[in-house]
Amino acid sequence: MRTISKLLRLALRGVAGAIFAAIMALLATLVFVYTVPAIRSFARMHESLPTAVIEDGHTVYCRMRYCDFRFPLPPECVVEHIGTVQGGFDTIDGSLRISASSGASLDMRAYAQLLQQRGFQVEAPDAFSLFAGSTRPLGGSIEVSLDTATTATIRFGYFGDY
């Protein structure tokens, strides 16, 4: 009888230990999920955000207090002007004007293929415009419309989940 009660006590201690470990893992996950944005926000507290900058001449890097969003520019283009960028902690809206660097026309079909290769879902109703939504991270959007054969306006936005 005593051996059964000892075994029962040991089994209950093991179950209690497993429950405790599961609760601690859940708490650690919750702390990580809810403090990382705050830490990122604190690190970026003195920066003027949101902002959009051009990385390596071919990627638009949108920085917000909690999130980042990147998208490629069309091949063989140069940014003429970055328009007004506005937003909040995890949102951004802005525009930029691009032109073909070689003087040739901008190819919307080639740009649509590039966006698809980078994980965007693309809708291209015609050769003069396109709309793309990001899948990683979810929430980004790009709308491109040709102004002339060699220039285009890109409107971009992102709405995060923090």
Description:
There is one protein chain. The chain has 162 residues and is of the alpha+beta class. The protein has 2 domains: 43 residues; 109 residues, no CATH class. It is built from 2 helices and 10 strands. Strands 4, 5, 6, 7, 8, 9 and 10 form a 7-stranded antiparallel beta sheet that branches. A hairpin with a 4-residue loop joins strand 2 and strand 3. The longest helix has 42 residues. It starts with a helix and ends with a strand. The relative contact order is 0.14.
Give the topology.
Layout: H1 2-43, E1 51-55, E2 59-63, E3 68-72, E4 77-82, E5 86-87, E6 91-100, H2 108-117, E7 120-126, E8 129-135, E9 138-146, E10 151-159
Antiparallel strand pairs: 1-2, 2-3, 4-6, 5-6, 6-10, 7-8, 8-9, 9-10
- The count of domains is 2
- Shape descriptor reads elongated
Give me the secondary-structure category. alpha+beta
Report the β-strand fraction as a percent range: 35-45%
Strand count, sense and closure of the main sheet?
7 strands, antiparallel
What's the mean pLDDT score?
86
> First CA to last CA: what distance?
57 Å
Number of DSSP E strands:
10
What series of H and E elements makes up the topology?
A: HEEEEEEHEEEE
Query: Rg from C-alpha positions?
Result: 25 Å
Q: Low-confidence parts, pLDDT < 50 over ≥5 residues? A: none
Quaternary structure: single chain
Number of helices: 2
Helical fraction:
25-40%
Sum this structure up briefly:
The chain is α+β, with helices and mostly antiparallel strands and 162 residues long.
